[in-house]
Amino acid sequence: MKKIITIICASIFTLSISAQSVDQGNMLIGTSSDFSISSYAPDGGDGEVAIKLQSHIGYFFMDYFAGGVSINYISFDGETASGFGLFGRYYLMDGQMYLQSGFNTGDPLVKVNGLEIPFEDGATIDLVVGYAAWLNDQVTLEPALKYSILRSDGEKVGTSIDLTMGLGFYF
């Protein structure tokens, strides 16, 4: 057990990045999950706990810049929804930090304070700031802060701030 803890601690303190991991022509495959407290009313009503899962695949179109597609799954109080989206991610500080923006679509059914609210033609606009903790040249642990704007039928219906934890694979 001591050896496992020592290896984990040594890995965390000796994180390094290979510049080739975020170079043009490489691929990014990742997943993230978050628990969030979200408000889905224009007047900032009470929040609702949600579980969100997202998988994404991207391509580095140029050094430090990747774009791609994502698949999303959301669960609110037993109700579920899914959707897809597009994202762009730019890496800073030699690949240790990133800024990401995305656009996701779907038709989720959300329960807020006991009321079911259908978001037909629903969409979110996401802004993300994250840290890429490189476990080796191809694998990252990615904690991030995400701000989302929820829209339905072209109108803003709420926002959320999420803390996420992701895992990224770079090829």
Sum up the structure in keywords.
11 strands, 1 helix, mainly beta
Write the layout of secondary structure elements.
Layout: H1 2-13, E1 27-39, E2 47-62, E3 65-76, E4 79-92, E5 97-106, E6 109-112, E7 115-118, E8 122-131, E9 133-134, E10 139-152, E11 155-170
Antiparallel strand pairs: 1-2, 1-11, 2-3, 3-4, 4-5, 5-8, 6-7, 8-10, 9-10, 10-11
How would you explain this protein's 3D organization?
- The protein has 171 residues and is mainly beta.
- 7% of the residues lie in helices and 67% in strands.
- It is built from one helix and eleven strands; from the N terminus they run αβββββββββββ.
- The strands form two sheets. An eight-stranded antiparallel β-barrel has the order 1-2-3-4-5-8-10-11.
- The longest helix has 12 residues.
- The radius of gyration is 18 Å and the shape is globular.
- The two termini are 31 Å apart.
- The relative contact order is 0.21.
